[in-house]
What does this fold into?
Amino acid sequence: MALLEAIILSVIAASTPLLLAAAGELVAERSGVLNLGVEGMMIMGAACGFAGAYFTGSTFVGALAGIIAGAALSLVFAALTLGLAVNQVATGLALTILGIGLSGLIGAGFVGQRITPAPHLDIPFLTDLPVVGHILFGQDAFVYFSILLVAGIWWFLYRTRGGLILRAVGDNHTSAHALGYPVLKIRLLAVLFGGGCAGLAGAYLPLAYTPFFIPGMTAGRGWIALALVVFSSWLPVRLVGGAYLFGAVTILQLHTQALGLGIPSQLMSSLPYLATVIVLVLISRTRATAGSAAPASLGMVFVPDR
Amino acid sequence: MKKFCLAAAATFVTLAAATLGAHAADKLKVGFIYLGPVGDFGWTYQHEVGRQNMVKALGDKIETTYLENVNEGPDAERAIEQLARAGNKLIFTTSFGYMDPTLKVAKRFPNVFFEHATGFKRAPNMSTYSGRFYEGRYIQGVIAAKMSKKGVLGYIASFPIPEVISGINATLLGAQTINPNIKVKIIWVNSWFDPGKEADAAKALADQGCDVLMQHTDSPAAMQIAAQRGILAFGQDSDMIKFGPKSQLTAIIDNWAPYYEQRAKDVLDGTWKSTDTWGGLKSQLVVMAPYTNMPDDVKALAEKTQAAIEDGSLHPFKCPIVDQDGKTIECKGGTHLDDGQILSMNFYVKGVDEKIPGK
Amino acid sequence: MQLVLERRGERSALIAIASPLIAIALTLITMSILFALLGKSPITALYIYFVQPLTDSYTLQEIAVKATPLVMIGVGLSLCYIANVWNIGAEGQFTIGAVAGSWLAVYTNGTGVGYWVLPVMLLLGAAAGALYAMIPAICKVRFGASEILTSLMLVYVADLFMDYLVRGPWRDPHGLNFPTTADFDPVATVPALIEGSRLHAGAIVALILVMLATVLLGRTIKGFEIRVVGAAPKAARFGGFNSDQLVIFTFAVSGALAGLAGIIEVAGPIGHLQPGISPGYGFTAIIVAFLGRLNPVGILIAGLFLALTFIGGEGAQISLKVPLDLTKVFQGILLFYVLACDSLIVYRIRLITTLRKPAHGTA
It folds into this structure.
């Protein structure tokens, strides 16, 4: 039982950055913008987040620094794709490359430095409950925030007018524009939100996961977050399940090794990606089913006519 | 008069040129190719420490350059060649994967001296050097068996190459002298340096009941996890005590500085020759970090073991060595396995349950 | 008062010519500022990055070696992008091509086979790349799944597959368990163009492909189809062009070129199969395609230029102690400026004084 609890804890920690980044990207994509630069924004969040925590000793400041870094980078993306109607795919890739390079430059001086990792919750009686104690009551702030974030996004998208408009913009920007909604402004806000989340997700890595900065420490998690959004059919609730599934596969792959089970580790590692392709195929066939397909205007350039 | 002045001027210019030329020729340019970032606090960091110490010792006589994060692919060959073209006369390539690129460049630059770490191919202008890390592993095995309450050791390994396999075996052999039934769980992260994966592996091993961790990877991530979980661990490549002040028992420290200094001096003196250096505790190429976080009797035992290895009375791979299938390995070195066997070690000793991946 | 983007009546010829120059100028200015911030003299840094590699025959050859896969993949990608389909999986097709071709090399290693080995390896590489690229294409055509994401996911699958092969079944038995295949036999190696240099026949192949692509796009019906399907899909349908078939065609061709680049790189400069055969060629080639304005000759120039920056970046690391990351920053910034400036060919920015009031509470 203790092993199961320990595995679950590891899975939660591994899944949180994926969930945070994917949640932000989901909002951006629901508004119709495909931002492939998640990896770049995440790694910038990691570098700036570490810097923030290093200079002030505060995890909170570090998290804030990460959010701002991610949002700033996404602003560049927005300026090009929304302001100048540039192709989103190319811009997103340029953003990734720029982000990786910039974070290397910024973070170079921090390699080998240490910071105090984010504190974990510790409620006297609850945290010590067997099995569920640590899982439910012993996590750090990022984990709780990630769940609240997804809940908040769900509520926003499906229970508020703002969310309805955002979804409308993503499904049919021409009609939304005809109805008078400020398509570009909504998309800008969504992109900034996505950038902030990606930055936070990246900051989680040096602030809580492995408390020091290494260039390239995101190791492709940004791309996994992109896959996650699709895997979850752009539904916030499914995102949580998907993130924990992806995280579980990563952790379990190590455990099966330690148990000597002899399954090729590469096979286990490729499962999330194969699963995404399959899910993509399946959900796209049922495009008619409401709510389980990509936003129809995803990735399309929009220039309001006058 | 005019002729005299001309002659004097010519002599002066020649002398000046000769002095200046000689002065320029005096500064030896030394280049380094690093696999990872210098801040990795592991393998590359130690090479960088070696380089810095060399600079301190030889001061004005040398000028050094390094390239970090050089991929072990086609880019490596270009990086090495660029260093050679930039006038470096002594080049250190610090990872096994640079072996073929170094050899290729060495053939094209016969007047440049190359030093390749942990490899086995040489040339008249290419040497190899490495450390007998397995000696340190043996000591760590002894300590681990003494300190482990559960009798299960966790090993975070990189690639199943002989250097890593011999490290695992030496650890086990040392541990078995204290606890013949000691168990080891191994996780292959398939990378020399991936702090995220190393941390995950450390957590998985700890979750599965290992109470002493050791690694053959380059970051202090596992040490940090050990500190978090309150278990013990061994540092690797450099002293990782500051990442686990209550967890680190000792660490195997790569002490390249004296070797680098010596080789640079050899080039300056014109006595450089292609050699193969495999130094251990005795020659201080391998140094153990101070023994901490253990009771005095364990410390004494560790020191005794170390002394025995240093004076040659104890060899980690003393025969008979039995592999995990029960076969006794041929003893080519008399009373212990010879260097060639250790360098190409491709089997686990008895006591390891899992198989070497890919076999 | 607000700034709006407005479509021009027709493409601005002036900007079309000036755009790359403006982009480069802006990039150089930005980089100079960055260099100054890093404490290096901008003039020296720019010289080392862009001019110095051109002054030495060794670095010139290395530029060609580095540019070869970029140009090959870029040309293939441009066909897709012109047709408005997004192949992001070139990196995976590169890997699969390398794997397929290497299979033959590994299988016949040391058995003294004839010269037919290399051409067959190249064919296998191209064929495998094409087939692998057709997976996302068919998913898009048949099921409507986003080709961006499917092709991207398959990059990871390909990479892991190759990783498994070189660490397991294909590992060199004499290589001391290192994750690499045995070195390819000389008959299975791409020949060098100059004795002792790394410049290999792949460069010639790349040039031939550039010429073929120019002919295809400019002078054949297929090329016309590709351009029309991309620019005006409805018109294309009226014209009887089958856009589904075209999607598959362009993906297959770009996959074949990426796969070919993969096996050439492995059988040429590298000489065996190992993890890490590509420092991201498949993704850098996307930048090359855009920088080259999706035009084969432009891609050739862009590929050479980008290769120049890679080599220059390495030189800067040696002489200026500037980290290699700066090259990535440069490439990202350059692409941003090029995209931004190119946008001004089709759109213009206007300052307007009347605001549209958004309607409230409708429908």
Strands of chain C lie at 2-7, 347-352.
